[in-house]
Design brief:
Chain A: Keywords: FAD, Flavoprotein, Oxidoreductase. The complex is a heterodimer of chains A (about 350) and B (about 375). With about 350 residues, chain A is an alpha+beta fold. Chain A folds into two domains: about 5-195, Butyryl-Coa Dehydrogenase, subunit A, domain 1; about 200-340, Up-down Bundle (Butyryl-CoA Dehydrogenase, subunit A, domain 3), CATH 1.20.140.10. Helices cover about 55% and strands about 10% of the residues of chain A. Chain A contains eleven helices and six strands. In chain A, the strands form two sheets. Chain A has a four-stranded mixed β-sheet, covered by helices on one side. In chain A, strands 5-6 form a two-stranded antiparallel sheet. In chain A, strand 5 and strand 6 form a beta hairpin. The longest helix of chain A is centred in the middle third of the chain and has 39 residues, at about 190-230. Chain B has about 375 residues and is of the alpha+beta class. Chain B folds into three domains: about 5-85, no CATH class; about 120-230, Butyryl-CoA Dehydrogenase, subunit A, domain 2 (Beta Barrel); about 245-365, Butyryl-CoA Dehydrogenase, subunit A, domain 3 (Up-down Bundle). Chain B contains eleven helices and eight strands. In chain B, the strands form two sheets. Chain B has a four-stranded mixed β-sheet with strand order 1-4-5-8. Chain B has a four-stranded antiparallel β-sheet with strand order 2-3-7-6, with no helix packed on it. In chain B, a hairpin with a 2-residue loop joins strand 2 and strand 3. The model of chain B has no long low-confidence stretch (mean pLDDT about 95). The chains are: A alpha+beta (about 350), B alpha+beta (about 375). At the A-B interface, helix 7, strand 6, helix 8, helix 9 and helix 11 of A face helix 7, helix 8, helix 9 and helix 11 of B. Bound molecules: flavin-adenine dinucleotide. Flavin-adenine dinucleotide (FAD) binds near residues 90, 132, 209, 348 and 355 of chain B.
Chain lengths: ~350, ~375
């Protein structure tokens, strides 16, 4: 047993970190928020070159996956750099297409396009198929569908083509939320429902990893700020109230990471869904707590649109409830344990 | 990265089978009272007989040189089987690691086997009335005399010292030296001439800890651990263990979370989603601690001050988990029983082994690198 990233996986994360640092993501985010998609799509293509978009696509369809551990490693960095775009949605679509296989006429063509970074995909899940009925949250939007080449809608047992409707704004400016206009039925029946459940779990897993990355970055910038910002003639990081906030943020994040990794490792096992939900609960709570602490530690500057860390603060809250709220995932954990 | 535990399955199976046939059917009386202490000591002897009392130690001292992963698995099985609390815990978890690092071969050979068998049960004597979190302000003294040292002063909050056999702790051996300097780490029999023990009732009245008064207590040189004067460094080699995984292992919380789930199934109003969420959180956090343990034993670097992260996590989880159980029990929550005993015990977790405020200071300064407060 070795429950830590191996050297190659670590290197993959470091490579992404380097690319994303150079990409100056805050300016990409601000463009994306204003509907200027090209810099974000260029970043999408360069990430595809490193293999990020191939991780959920099986080798038979031109991908490298499924590689869930590499996937969470990549999404951790996507979160750390707050990269805009429907990455988790594209992972979910890839899983869906893979599971449905030949049932979809253009499935393999799309999968290949996703792996190569040519097809940006999004997905609307008006109900989250993996979660217990009363708890599931509804999201009648498809993230960034206005920038996507392929938009799908899971409508009960039916998979439909869809188009982007009116864009709604999110708290996170990088998340553009068009409503969807339903199109033709592409496939229907129990296989769609089954595929949608796994696809949903992959989206949740990717989002959980992203949340931990968002929280990490917020902690990093807050620690730096606490060392630099002077009040009362000393760095604010000397004050114990500030120290304890930051220590708490670390504790939460340190215990979310193993759950995310554990869920990735359990891909394909009967516990995958339960583990993914546990990871999402911990990651949502830890990242959101880190965001509130980051805001408090920064004071007024953190509350401004202009100051880059506020992009991460807003993303943490948006992702906290995206792909199922913590309450919905707790319900899932309990229902999967209650039978055990 | 993997979670492939197949290599430890034979060990797990052996431990599980032994526990299945040996764990007392009815819980032993509380180990915080005299009768329970004796019953738990007898249980230690039984564990030792199966070479299961100190699995991670070398064979020559009664262990089986289990790997850290095997140790985690042992703990999972131990608590899942509902086996008794470990009356030897402070010796095994707090003194033995210090001895392995700083003890002489003679000390190891003399102290460890009887610790492993429960024949000698050890009490930690660090805290003093004036020295709690600020341990370096301790004032009990060790004065050089021919062939050894004379101890004077007072220690307090020493767990189970009313019934234990030997104690260990730091004493000020250089009266001129300040704070962390001039301390010496010593072991002494609790029935030595000149020691007075006074049991202290904990919050539920059980005599869980004791005050110790030292009046010219002679300790021979062979009972000094490490170099005289280097007591701070020697003591600190204990705290890393204490704050890491060993003192309260993940297995303990996994088992408690499973029992909480049982209670939830028996007692819960399914519509009470607030309680349901707390049960889910207890399970999720216990699982997180289990995985963190697997992560920790997979690492090759020293976790150092990161052990403080674990201390905060398990102690807060323990309180939350037991509070949830009492809330599930409703009006029965105040009645004597296992959950209440566990709850009372959990309340001390954020205080002992370095308070959680101190741990947060450590994390902020030594893990996150924030500046120390100006003194
Ligand atoms: C059940 C139990 C068993 C114990 N067993 C043993 C044992 O076997 N052997 C032994 O030696 N001791 C034992 N102790 C004692 C334990 O180690 C001390 O209680 C602990 O170190 C705290 O010291 P104190 O109680 O004097 O509290 P204090 O140090 O007086 O602290 C009081 C409060 O002030 C806070 N505080 C103090 N300093 C700071 C600071 N710098 N920054 C922020 N907050 C601060 C603390 O966090 C705490 O909240 C035990 C305690 C308990 C409750």
């Amino acid at each position: 047993m070795k429950f830590i990233l191996d050297a190659e996986q670590r290197l993959f994360g470091e490579t992404l970190d380097k690319i994303l640092t150079e990409a100056d993501t805050p300016s990409v985010i601000r463009g994306w928020a204003a509907g200027v998609h090209e810099p974000g799509l260029a970043l999408w293509r360069s990430l595809a070159e490193t293999g990020v978009l191939a991780l959920a696509v099986p080798e038979s369809a031109g991908g490298a996956g499924p590689l869930p551990v590499e996937l969470v490693t990549a999404f951790h960095e996507l979160g750390r750099h707050a990269v805009p775009g429907p990455y988790a949605e594209t992972v979910a679509v890839a899983t869906l297409l893979d599971r449905l296989g030949d049932e979809l006429e253009r499935g393999s063509e799309w999968l290949e396009g996703i792996a190569e970074g040519r097809v940006v995909a999004s997905l609307a899940l008006p109900t989250l198929p993996a979660l217990p009925a009363p708890a599931q949250a509804s999201a009648p939007y498809a993230l960034d569908a206005d920038a996507a080449d392929l938009v799908l809608l899971v409508d009960g047992d039916a998979l439909r083509a869809a188009a982007a409707g009116e864009v709604r704004a999110s708290l996170d400016p990088a998340r553009r939320l068009p409503s969807v206009v339903a199109g033709d039925v592409l496939a229907a029946g129990p296989s769609v429902a089954a595929a949608a459940r796994v696809a949903c779990d992959m989206g949740v897993l990717a989002t959980a990893a992203q949340l931990v990355g968002v929280g990490r970055r917020l902690l990093e910038v807050s620690v730096d700020y606490a060392k630099a910002r002077q009040q009362f003639g000393r760095p604010i990081g000397e004050f114990q109230a500030v120290k304890h906030h930051l220590a708490d943020a670390l504790v939460g994040l340190e215990y979310a990471r193993p759950l995310v990794h554990g869920a990735a490792v359990s891909y394909g096992s009967p516990d995958f869904g339960r583990d993914v939900s546990a990871a999402k609960v911990a990651a949502s709570e830890a990242a959101y707590a880190a965001a509130k602490i980051a805001l408090q530690v920064h004071g007024a500057i953190g509350y401004t649109d202009e100051y880059d860390p506020s992009l991460w603060i807003r993303k943490a809250r948006a992702l906290h409830s995206a792909w199922g709220s913590p309450a919905a995932h707790r319900a899932r954990v309990i229902s999967s344990l209650a039978g055990a | 990265m993997d979670l492939d535990l197949s290599s430890v399955e034979p060990f797990r199976a052996e431990v599980r089978e032994w526990l299945r046939t040996h764990v007392p059917a009815a819980p032993l009386p509380s180990l915080e009272i005299e009768e329970g202490f004796a019953a738990h000591r007898a249980w230690e002897r039984e564990l030792y007989g199966a070479r299961l009392s100190v699995v991670s130690w070398p064979e020559e001292y009664g262990g089986r040189a289990a790997t850290p992963l095997e140790w985690l698995v042992f703990e999972e099985e131990y608590y899942a089987a509902g086996a008794p609390g470990r009356v030897s815990q402070n010796g095994i978890n707090l003194l033995a690691p210090t001895l392995f690092q700083h003890g002489t071969p003679e000390q190891l050979a003399r102290v460890l086997p009887s610790m492993a068998s429960g024949e000698v049960i050890w009490a930690q004597a660090w805290s003093e009335p004036g020295a709690g979190s600020d341990l370096a302000s301790l004032r009990a003294t060790a004065t050089r005399v021919d062939g050894g040292w004379l101890l004077n002063g007072q220690k307090t909050w020493s767990s189970r010292a009313a019934f234990a056999d030997w104690g260990f702790g730091p004493f000020r051996s250089d009266p001129e030296a300040q704070r962390h300097r001039g301390l010496t780490y010593l072991m002494f029999p609790l029935d030595a001439e000149g020691i007075t023990r006074r049991p202290i009732g904990r919050i539920d009245g059980k005599p869980a800890f004791a005050e110790l008064f030292f009046d010219d207590v002679f300790v021979p040189d062979r009972d000094v651990i490490g170099e005289p004067g280097a007591g701070w460094k020697v003591a600190m080699s204990t705290t890393g263990n204490e704050r890491g995984l060993t003192l309260r292992s993940p297995g303990r919380f996994l088992a408690a979370a499973d029992r909480l789930l049982d209670l939830w199934r028996e007692r819960a109003d399914p519509g009470d989603t607030a309680l349901r969420d707390r049960v889910a959180d207890a399970w999720i956090k216990a699982r997180a601690y289990q995985l963190k343990g697997y992560e920790t034993v997979s690492r090759t670097d020293d976790i150092g001050a990161e052990s403080s992260i674990n201390k905060i996590f398990w102690s807060e989880l323990d309180v939350a988990l037991h509070e949830t159980a009492l809330d599930l029990l409703g009006p029965d929550g105040e009645l004597e029983g296992d959950w209440l005993e566990g709850y009372v015990f959990s309340l001390a977790g954020p205080i002992y082994a370095g308070t959680n405020e101190i741990q947060r200071n450590v994390i902020a300064e030594r893990v996150l690198g924030l500046p120390r407060a100006g003194r």
